[in-house]
């Protein structure tokens, strides 16, 4: 039995990947007899019975519905809070660094309570202090955020916006430094492994691919699918998710067909997605869904005739695998790890060139017109998930990685303590 401290600087429950990873990994580790305590800042995760949550509150400067808020003076507790606020004021993103400082302080008082610490892509400087305290550290990197930066910069409309984005992504220099010093990095795909090695300069020998899992609640629908319904799950105002490409394709299809588009997201009010919807005159055919329960989410995912993952990059794409578990036929981008998730082109999903509106339009139209192919594709996707994507398998492989890291750390500490031969 291992005692695990699992760290995450933000753990949004139903999207963004990190909160989903935290919840299901911690649950399965506990089911296998380990003790898991999650340390998280806001938004806090949803956790299952048997998993302990220790809140590591930030100033929560990006919370909805008032992101980039001005905190009251009484909210400031120490200099870390001041650093967090000032970094935001200068257009930077402080959360990985400030969370790492806070959680390192907490762990310094509890070194004897844990056998291993698992960093879920915090990669803040505080992580480097944890092993100095006497706690072995392992790190998960879902994908290097350098890809988000490149795509956001390419989409930036002005030089001023580009300069602001460069400041926002300033934390990546820190993350690269910390990643290069990590004892062992877990990552969910071969694609991410290559990208981490290239962009962060991490030795591939110190990385291990462990596929992510799909929760058992994701099952095929028992009700008929809604004719003409297309579904996408993505952060609507992040260019990397490719929603603009989908909206343009949908607008073309909508001129000839009776269709509706469901976007499982909460868009930024007045943001680029709402603006594009207005420009394309498809507001009456696009609906946003957010804040739903797991059961409601599964029902929505199983209601669509076709789902689309138009991302320009993904380190794994849990929504893709979850939609496959619901036997929902897919049109997906040939980007990042998505081809690894769906397998051979056309079997579980139709692969298209990222950002290509014409190709996406044609692929969606062809699938909407072919109910037999949709049925075959959905069933193949469901089989692939059952064969390859299990949270139990993820937890087993992760626990084995914990054991290896603990043994490596102890051997290193013993070697440091050996007397010199010339003494």
Computed Rg: 22 Å
Instruction: Please estimate the helix content.
Output: 40-55%
Number of strands: 13
* Oligomeric assembly: single chain
The residue ranges in which pLDDT falls below 50 over 5 or more consecutive positions are none
CATH class placement of the largest domain: Alpha Beta
Q: Might you state the CATH topology name of the largest domain?
A: Rossmann fold
Order of helices and strands: EHEEHHEHEHHHEHEEHEHEHEHEHEHHH
CATH architecture heading of the largest domain:
3-Layer(aba) Sandwich
Number of helices: 16
- The CATH homologous superfamily of the largest domain is termed Glycogen Phosphorylase B
Mean pLDDT over all positions: 95
Shape: globular
């Amino acid at each position: 039995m291992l005692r695990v401290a699992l760290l995450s600087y933000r753990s949004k429950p139903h999207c963004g990947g990190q909160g989903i990873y935290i919840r299901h990994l911690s649950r399965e580790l506990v089911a296998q007899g380990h003790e898991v305590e999650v340390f998280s800042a806001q938004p806090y995760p949803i956790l299952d019975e048997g998993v302990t949550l220790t809140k590591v509150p930030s100033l929560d400067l990006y919370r909805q519905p008032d992101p980039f808020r001005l905190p009251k003076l009484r909210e400031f507790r120490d200099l870390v809070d001041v650093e967090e606020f000032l970094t935001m004021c200068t257009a930077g993103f402080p959360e990985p660094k400030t969370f790492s400082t806070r959680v390192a302080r907490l762990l310094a008082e509890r070194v004897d309570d844990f056998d291993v610490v698992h960093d879920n892509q915090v990669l803040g400087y505080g992580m480097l202090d944890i092993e100095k305290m006497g706690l072995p550290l392992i790190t998960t990197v879902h994908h290097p955020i350098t890809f988000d930066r490149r795509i956001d910069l390419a989409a930036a409309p002005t030089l001023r916006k580009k300069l602001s984005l460069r400041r926002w992504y300033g934390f990546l220099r820190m993350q690269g430094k910390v990643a290069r010093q990590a004892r062992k990095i877990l990552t969910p795909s071969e694609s991410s492994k290559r990208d981490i090695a290239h962009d962060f300069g991490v030795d591939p020998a110190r990385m291990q691919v462990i596929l992510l899992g799909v929760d058992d609640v994701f099952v095929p629908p028992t009700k008929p699918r809604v004719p003409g319904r297309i579904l996408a799950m993505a952060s609507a105002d992040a260019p990397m998710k490719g929603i603009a490409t989908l909206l343009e394709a949908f607008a073309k299809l909508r001129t000839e067909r009776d269709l509706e588009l469901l976007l499982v997201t909460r868009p930024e009010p007045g943001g680029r997605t709402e603006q594009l919807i207005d420009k394309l005159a498809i507001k009456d055919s696009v609906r946003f869904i957010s804040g739903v329960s797991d059961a409601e989410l599964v029902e929505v995912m199983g209601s669509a005739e076709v789902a689309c993952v138009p991302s320009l990059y993904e380190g794994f794409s849990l929504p893709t695998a979850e939609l496959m578990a619901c036997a929902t036929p897919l049109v997906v981008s040939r980007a990042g790890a998505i081809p690894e998730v769906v397998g051979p082109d056309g079997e579980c999903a139709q692969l298209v060139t990222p950002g290509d509106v014409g190709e996406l339009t044609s692929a969606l139209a062809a699938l909407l017109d072919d109910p037999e192919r949709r049925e075959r594709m959905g069933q193949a996707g469901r089989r692939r998930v059952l064969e390859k994507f299990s949270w139990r398998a993820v937890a087993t492989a992760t626990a084995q990685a914990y054991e290896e890291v603990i043994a490596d750390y102890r051997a290193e500490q013993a070697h440091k303590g050996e007397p010199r031969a010339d003494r």
